[in-house]
Amino acid sequence: EADIYQTPRYLVIGTGKKITLECSQTMGHDKMYWYQQDPGMELHLIHYSYGVNSTEKGDLSSESTVSRIRTEHFPLTLESARPSHTSQYLCASSHRAGANVLTFGAGSRLTVL
Amino acid sequence: GQQVMQIPQYQHVQEGEDFTTYCNSSTTLSNIQWYKQRPGGHPVFLIQLVKSGEVKKQKRLTFQFGEAKKNSSLHITATQTTDVGTYFCAGQAGTALIFGKGTTLSVSS
What we know:
The complex is a heterodimer of chains A (113) and B (109).
Chain A: E1 4-7, E2 10-13, E3 19-25, E4 31-37, E5 44-51, E6 54-57, E7 65-66, E8 76-78, E9 87-94, E10 103-104, E11 108-112
Parallel strand pairs in A: 2-11
Antiparallel strand pairs in A: 1-3, 3-8, 4-5, 4-9, 5-6, 7-8, 9-10, 9-11
Chain B: E1 4-7, E2 10-14, E3 19-25, E4 31-37, E5 44-49, E6 55-58, E7 61-65, E8 71-76, E9 85-93, E10 96-99, E11 103-108
Parallel strand pairs in B: 2-11
Antiparallel strand pairs in B: 1-3, 3-8, 4-5, 4-9, 6-7, 7-8, 9-10, 9-11
């Protein structure tokens, strides 16, 4: 079973609220990622990190921000949620060395009203 | 930019029929990975192919990596209802792992 945890699994909030999606992994992986995925659709990379204090934007522009203060923790924050942010957010991690095989968390499904 | 094209987008089969999904990259890949995402679930790693012309099997699933390391396929023999889901390929080019758009497989019994 994957040792990468995301909370909350489901979140329904109103427009304008600040939210933080948590992601933690216990595998000691250096690389961590956030993907955005609408139901039945492709995966869009929005943020990634190759280590502590290292964060980069992905291929899909996102209004969210991330931080990597500890190796095991990679939270994603939306300062002011909008209905267009409604989606599933998937966190993943991989080892720095060798193949870039991803382990995904179960996802956080966000609905903004 | 670098792209990984995956076809078909959707495929419906009768249980017992075979199924194949194809990936094509615009650039040479160092490796290709395949993931499966069940409905309502998250992607789960299936396999990685590294060598030119490599073929790997997992029970009824057969994975191939092209000679030029630009294309790959996943073939399922005699599909079962448990095979339902979306299959993603992901090609490694440099440091970037590029996902295809996925093929969603539905199976009727």
